[in-house]
Write a structure and sequence with these properties.
This protein has about 220 residues and is an alpha/beta fold. It has a single domain (about 5-210), classed as TIM Barrel, CATH 3.20.20.70. The chain has ten helices and eight strands. Strands 1-2-3-4-5-6-7-8 form an eight-stranded parallel barrel, surrounded by seven helices. Helix 2 packs parallel to helix 3 and helix 2 (about 25-35) runs parallel beside helix 10. The longest helix has 18 residues, at about 50-65.
Length: about 220
């Protein structure tokens, strides 16, 4: 897949599922069947061999469902895994350095937690941005919640690249996030811990589908 198609798929994406290497094949498949447009492999405990083995499974499922595959933190592993992008945190490599490593073909995502970080991410050339955490979440211990106010700020800025609200988003509160102006969300536990991952993904996707997504909003 070339960079043009990757960016076109990113522009259409609404539901981003982040999970680790222990997630079962069936959960991944059901998430994609339910409407997840992107998967991110994020596992701070796995070694490189384990990450690459998991990435191969993620890659095959993403290809089957027309979804994008992201690898967390590691530009080198993203390249080795044949991922579509690498997602960086504020404490990871700066976006320009990551761009030198992965070239123009791979997408670069960036987590942001404040308006200043959002503006800096846009200026640095990130292809997509996450905004949050909206609510405090155990997947990011010690990271204070930004609240819906940050989502509203991002919506009012209308960033030139796709942005996703992240942090504690569930099928029970996704309508609040949409009402604040988000058209895209990142979820972890809302799908991974669901008794029916396909139904959970479908419910989230349906809530997001009530708004009209713009190519760059």
């Amino acid at each position: 897949m070339g960079p043009t198609e990757r960016r076109a798929r990113l522009a259409r994406a609404r539901l981003y599922f982040v999970t680790d290497s222990t997630t079962t094949h069936s959960v991944l498949r059901e998430a994609l069947e339910g409407g997840a447009d992107m998967l991110q492999l994020r596992d701070l405990d796995a070694n490189d061999d384990e990450l690459l083995a998991a990435a191969a499974e993620f890659r095959a499922l993403c290809d089957e469902h027309g979804a994008l595959l992201w690898v967390n933190d590691r530009p080198d592993l993203a390249l080795r895994a044949g991922a579509d992008g690498v997602h960086l945190g504020q404490d990871d490599l700066p976006v320009p350095i990551a761009r030198e490593l992965v070239g123009e073909d791979l997408l670069i995502g960036l987590s942001t937690h404040s308006p200043a970080q959002l503006e800096a991410g846009i200026a640095a050339g990130a292809d997509q941005l996450s905004v949050g955490p909206v609510w405090q979440t155990p997947t990011k211990p010690g990271r204070p919640a930004t609240g819906l106010g940050y989502v509203r700020h991002a919506a009012s800025m209308r960033p030139p690249v796709p942005w996703f609200a992240i942090g504690g988003v569930t099928s029970q509160n996704v309508d609040e996030v949409v009402a604040a102006g988000a058209e895209r969300v990142v979820v972890v536990r809302a799908i991974a811990d669901a008794s029916d991952p396909r139904a959970a993904a479908a419910k989230l996707r349906a809530a997001l589908g009530r708004s009209t997504v713009g190519a760059a909003q």
